Amino acid sequence: MGGWMELSKSEAGARDECAVRVEFQRWNCDGSSFPVLGKRILDRSIPTEDLAILLLLAYYVCAQSTAFLVSGLDKTSEPWSMMNFFSFFFCYACQKKLLIFVPTMVTTSEVINSERVFRLVVLKFVLLLAFLFIYTSEGVNIEGQYLLNLKSNMADAFYHLDSWNANDLIPCQWKGVSCTSDGIVVGLHLNSMNLSGIISPRIGGLIHLTVLDLSFNEFSGAIPREISNCSKLEVLYLNNNKFEGEIPHELGSLSSLLKCNLCNNKLCGQLPESIGGLSSLLELVAYSNNITGPLPRSIGKLKNLSVLRMGQNLITGSIPVEVSECRNMKRFGLAQNQLEGEIPKEIGKLPSLTELVLWDNQLSGCIPKEIGNCTQLVTLALYQNNLVGGIPEDIGRLNNLEKLYLYRNSLNGTIPKTIGNLTRATEIDLSENILTGKIPSELCNIKGLYLLHLFQNDLRGFIPPELSGLRNLSKLDLSINSLDGPIPLGFQDMTNLTQLQLFNNMLSGTIPQKLGVYSSLWVVDFSENNLSGQIPRYLCRHSNLILLNLWSNNLTGNIPSEVINCRSLVQLRLGKNSLTGSFPSDLCKLVNLTAIELDENRFSGPIPPEIGQCKALQRLNLPNNFFTHELPRELCNLSLLVILNISSNKIGGSLPQEIFKGRMLQRLDLSQNQFIGTLPDEINLVQLERFVISDNKLSGIIPPIIGKLSHLMELQMGGNEFFGSIPKELGGLSSLQIAMNLSYNDLSGNIPEELGNLALLEFLLLNNNHLTGEIPSSFANLSSLLGLNLSYNDLTGPIPSIPLFRYMTLCSFIGNKDLCGKPLVGCGLPPSLSTSSPRTNTSLSRTVTIIFTAVGGISLVLVTIMVCILRRPIETISPFQDKQLRNTTSGTCMFPKEKVTFQDIVSATNDFDESFVIGRGACGTVYRALLKSGQTIAVKKLASNREGNYTENSFHAEILTLGKIRHRNIVKLYGFSYHQCSNLLLYEYMARGSLGELLHGEFSSTLDWETRYMIALGAAEGLSYLHHGCKPCIIHRDIKSNNILLNENFEAHVGDFGLAKVIDMPQSKSMSAVAGSYGYIAPEYAYTMKITEKCDIYSYGVVLLELLTGRTPVQPLDQGGDLVTWVRTYIKNNSLSSGILDSKLNLEDGIAVDHMIMVLKIALLCTNSSPLDRPAMQEVVLMLVESKQKAASLVSSQVPDFSSKEVDR
């Protein structure tokens, strides 16, 4: 323990004049001969119970020692009493580690004969007693006072710091505080305590601190620069809080710092240049902040740095070459920033590098061949950049590489054969590039390969048969290429294959008939090829098959019974083949089946009544077959049915009235059959959006109840035998947009004025009826109308002189003998083109109708361009002479009220100056432009095409998508400018920026719950319109808070369709491309690689959770890695709302909190792991609206069971 007091005789002196050497040695304390007890008394760090005993002992010893000092030791008296107390005192003190010195074992005679020495010992002991009495007169020591000051600035909702008591003598027993054995505070561990508030500058008084861990709390405010006073600090963990402001440059003086974690905060500003002063630093982690500016070059001074993770920030500039000076670097991560320039070849000087993660930046140039020198690399993630050129041969030198992600760039050339040298690789993803040539057979050398994605390139030739030797391969996607030849027969022998996607190629031959015998297949997608023969019977042998998509091939024969009885099957897509037989009734026994698509085949016979047993069925597509008999009434049992399409068959009889009671049905197409009879008076299809019953033999009047289908967007009733007048109630279809087609019937009477209320309607076809009277003047209100056909009726009077009709041709009005005015002959003049009977020129009139119908099916963006041409000529922009856009010409679609040229945009943005930048995205940069008229717009300048067509495709995708849309919650596209080197999109300007910026930025406090709710509702309505109001349906593919923009009044507008794809079009029916942003991607995407409406709904649910929690979508790995997992895990272990809701909201308002909980339930439904259990966006809108009215019962019954494993995925 302590030191010993030694008494030794001098060899030269007499026995009674012994020389005494008293030697004190301090325990855990150096530099002073003063006993540690004295120091601990001054620091007030002796435990209370020990002090009490010492004081009792000291009282008696003090009295005895005073008498001794006055009169001396009476040699005839017995000294043992006082000596025993001395011994007991020292022994107790030593046992409690309060005294660091203990007297040696000295004989009694030596003590008695050494009176001078004994007096000295007693004198020092009395001095120690004085310190004890000083100790009893004061409170906690100075370090404890610093800690209490810290606590006073914190909010401790769960009372974790209750043990921090000002009446304690020392803080060493306080929760989260660690000390040395002599009472010095060296560690503060307050992680994961749900603490909030700010960090007091007094923390700088803890000068001996070596560990400071405040992670996973709700601390806000700035990081105090006084932390730099803790010069011995080795570990600084401030991650997962809400710290704001810049990183203090004073932190650069912490020369002992080994680990620094600042991730998941709201820190801004640049990484200080002083960071180079952290000479001992091993790990610097600061991802998920708002750090801007370039990386400081001083980072090269951190010679010991092994981990640098700065992803998901706003870092700009290029990667400094000085990084190569950090020779111990192992993990280098700068993903999701705005880095530009090339990857420095000096990266090759980092021999210890194991992870290079630079994805989602704007890096350009080629992949440096020097990267092959980093032979310790395990992960190389360079995807989602602007990299060009070929994949370097030197990549084959990375013998330790396990994960190679180069997808979503513009890489060209062939895949190098040296890729076969990556013998330890488990995942290789080169998809979404412009790679050409053949798939190298050398890939078969990578025996441990688990995932191989080469989809969406321009690969040609055969699929190498050698790939079948990859026995560990589980996920293989070669889709969207130009591969031909057969599917290798050896694929049927691959035992671990679970996902095999070869769609959209030119493959021929038969599908290996034993495919599935040895492998547990989940996903099989061979759609859009030229495959022939029969469907293999063993695809579902292991009962794991979820998706079977063989759409658009040349397959023949029947559906194998083994497939029909596949209990795991969720989607069966066999359309556009030559399959025969009857509808397999056993399909209806598959309880998980949600989609049956047998369209465009040669199936015949009746649709069996067993169809009513498919309780989970949501889509039933059977058009263009030879089905006969009547429609089974059992269809009404399909309560989840959303789409029913049996068009172009030979089904007859009356329509069963039960079919008009499907409350989930959104699309009903019964056209081109032989149905007879009338429509029922009651139609309760409350969710119906598309109602198509044209070209049948239906009769009777049009039920007025149709006017109450508030979600209806398309009404096709032409080619029947309906009679009577057009119900005025149809004018109440406020959502009707695509078309109203009542042509080729026997309708009579006047055209109702109420039809003028259909402000969104684009095509109105009333031709070939017996309508009379004048054209309603209310048609002037049909501001969205693009096509009108009133031909071959009995209309009279002048054609209204309204702008809408100014550009209509005579085809719209021909065949009305008493109708006059432009474009027909003028009123009062002899008719020349209106003498034909309404029914005599049937061939011509039907041709007219077909033309109008065809126009309606064409992409609406072309119609938009056509209208621009008709209304105002497209101006040719003169060449703009600058180094970036010289020698180009462009066309611009004008504003409705003024011309805007490319030169105007250049002037309004000062030649696209950086000071006008308001945002950056994967496809380009957004500028704020103030036009000469005083109007402010947003201009999105897409990146140069360079060597690929990615941005050009993105430009066309945005035009084709945004050009169709008219909705108050969708960002409006004003116009566009098309250049060879630069494409511009002109948007409505959103003054408040993005929801992500406001929610997670410095102004988040301005978003109260009412504002957040209205934003959620507006975004839901916009997304619902994309899903249900556009034909074909539009999937956004990248819903996130940064893509929800807010105007001056905080109204939500869904924007940024850079990733939007139009589904249900021939070229994209089986589109499978990686899309979305990390934290928002639906879980099923991992195994289907398909984007559906349900993926958008999942992403929207994440946005709802952001609005409710205030958290970002990406969470720490130890909390699940994403916001959905964090919320579900938290709810599982706590209550539904406890600790979930954003503390910045007013949580004392009980009504508001109840509303938040209801919206939380909706968010949980949207983020259900099963896409089948997610509601449609229209349902989400309905639930949000009714949640405002406290209709909690709408969602409470559907809240997931949080005790299931689903929350632990």
TrEMBL record:
- Cellular compartment(s): Cell membrane
What's the Enzyme Commission number for this chain? Answer: 2.7.11.1
GO molecular function annotation: ATP binding; protein serine/threonine kinase activity
Membrane topology reported for the UniProt record: Single-pass type I membrane protein
- Keyword check for Cell membrane: yes
UniProt keyword annotations, A-Z: ATP-binding, Cell membrane, Glycoprotein, Kinase, Leucine-rich repeat, Membrane, Nucleotide-binding, Phosphoprotein, Receptor, Repeat, Serine/threonine-protein kinase, Signal, Transferase, Transmembrane, Transmembrane helix
SUPFAM superfamilies tied to this protein: L domain-like (SSF52058), Protein kinase-like (PK-like) (SSF56112)
Q: Which Gene3D superfamilies match?
A: Phosphorylase Kinase, domain 1, Ribonuclease Inhibitor, Transferase(Phosphotransferase) domain 1
Coiled coil residues, start to end: none
Report the main location listed first in the record.
membrane
Show which residues constitute the signal peptide.
none
The keyword Cytoplasm is assigned to this record = no
Q: What are the TM regions of this chain, as residue ranges? A: 51-73, 85-105, 117-135, 848-870
Q: Name one GO cellular component term.
A: plasma membrane
Task: Identify the residues that the record assigns to the Protein kinase domain, covering every copy.
Answer: 912-1185
Q: Which reaction does it catalyse?
A: L-seryl-[protein] + ATP = O-phospho-L-seryl-[protein] + ADP + H(+); L-threonyl-[protein] + ATP = O-phospho-L-threonyl-[protein] + ADP + H(+)
PANTHER family in the cross-refs = LEUCINE RICH REPEAT FAMILY PROTEIN, EXPRESSED, PROTEIN KINASE DOMAIN-CONTAINING PROTEIN
The entry sums up its family as follows: Belongs to the protein kinase superfamily. Ser/Thr protein kinase family.
Tell me the protein's name. non-specific serine/threonine protein kinase
Q: Which organism is it from?
A: Zingiber officinale
